[in-house]
Each structure stands twice: as C-alpha cells, then as structure tokens.
Amino acid sequence: MASKPLQRSKSDDLAEKVDAPPPYTLIAEAGSSTVQDDGRIDVDLDSPAARTALKFIPRLSEDDLISPPPTYSGPVEWDIKLNIVIHVVGSRGDVQPFIALGNELQKHGHRVRLATHDVFDSFVRKSGLEFYPIGGDPAELMAFMVKNPGLIPNMESLKAGEITRKRVMVREMLEGCWKSCIDDDPSTGAPFVADAIIANPPALRMFIVPKP
Asked: What is the DSSP letter of 51?
C-alpha cells in the first residue's frame, strides 16, 4: 500500500519564504558597532548609520544650550518646629560638628537636644544646646576600637574581659539614648518628646554588642 504524501501547511510555505535572522554578532558588526568578547559594544558615531540618524535630531542653537540660572528665591521658611535629639558617641571631635548642626537647626526654630557622654556636659551647654547624658566613657570606647578594628573582637580582648565591660557600657548608653528621646530636660524639667533623631556613625557601631 502506497503511503500518502505529507500535507504541507501554509506555515511551512511561509517559513521557506522568510529567511532566519542573522546572528546577533553579525547585526552588531554590520556598520556602526562591534561586540567584544567580554560583552561590551563599541559604537562608531562616525558610521553611515550614525550620520543618518543625526539628520532626524534637531540641532540646538547657542541660546538653547546656554540658559540663565533660575531666579534665587531665598531660604524656604517652614512653619513646622521639631524637637530634635542628636545622639553622638565618640570623642570631642565627633561631638563638635553636631554642635554646629544643632545651632543651625535652632536658627530655623527647632528645639535641639544633644545626647552624648557625660564628660561633654559643659561643652554642649556652652554652645547653647540642651544636653542629655547617655553615660559611657569615650576614652575607653576609642581604645576598644583601636584594639578591635573589625566587628569580631580579638582573643586578647576576650581574655581580658573587655567584652563584658563593653556590654555593660553599651547597655547604659542604649538606655540613655532611649531616655533622651522621651525624658524631661534634666536641668529645667521642660517636657521633651523627640520628633526626629540624628545619630553619628560611631553611635551605630558602638551598638553592635557581641553575643555571649
């Protein structure tokens, strides 16, 4: 019994008429660009294709390229006044820039409290900012950071019991930072609840406490 010839569909006829697309690399290398082995593409802006594309881009005049600066409107005045607490852990050099920031915030009507180590009490108050003590010894903290520059303390610190002392100190500072957001002013008794908190990077690093 003779077998029937296979029926050709319209899609088969259409596939023969439509050529398969060339490889991606051939498309990229045809004229204006080349593909390198690492995947980067070098585009030749002086190629015929690029020059043809430039004909469809409107040219800008010098007046369009050089525009006058916007009119200066002066500082923006805000009606919202915030209670801001600034947490600073570190040395006097860490505290000083935030005093300048606090003084500038005061000029805009904000109430600023700087919460840091007890030893900087008079330094902060003389600058005109409110002060809240969070405890901690900055000299001891800086010495610990010098001995342990990474997040994992070395064996000498572990043997000397420095981790336990640091945990106690950090607990004191964490509690002090929390209270500085909600407690009344220690000197005047004026109520205070923080609307915004600003903290320096050493404060975040100090709060990384190794687990026992």
From this structure: H
